[in-house]
Amino acid sequence: xxxxxxxxxxxxxxxxxxxxxxxxxxxxxxxxxxxxxxxxxxxxxxxxxxxxxxxxxxxxxxxxxxxxxxxxxxxxxxxxxxxxxxxxxxxxxxxxxxxxxxxxxxxxxxxxxxxxxxxxxxxxxx
Length: 126
Hints:
This protein is of the alpha/beta class. It has a single domain, classed as CATH 2.40.50.200. 24% of the residues lie in helices and 34% in strands. The chain has helices at 2-25, 34-39, and strands at 32-33, 47-55, 66-70, 75-79, 94-104, 107-117. Strand 5 and strand 6 form a beta hairpin. The longest helix has 24 residues, at 2-25. The termini are far apart.
């Protein structure tokens, strides 16, 4: 009986340690706004960024797999050629985009690896 309890406790501790280690190795990133990103874009160059913004009206192009993600004052080109567009994504919607941020031909762009569409209230801090 004691051996079984000890094994269950040990298994629980190992699971807890494994979950803790996975969060420590790659903690979830908090989304930043387009305006925050563009205040100092070079500090984020060639890094994975989680970006929050609105799909700019008239920019969703399914031929070139791109659109503009806008903030209050700034916008960023999003290239989504490598992923599928989630259901519910449309112009004027607030979304979260995760990807690598880089500059090509003097244009800053995010190469999307993940797009999350949902209720904008979920993205607001507080």
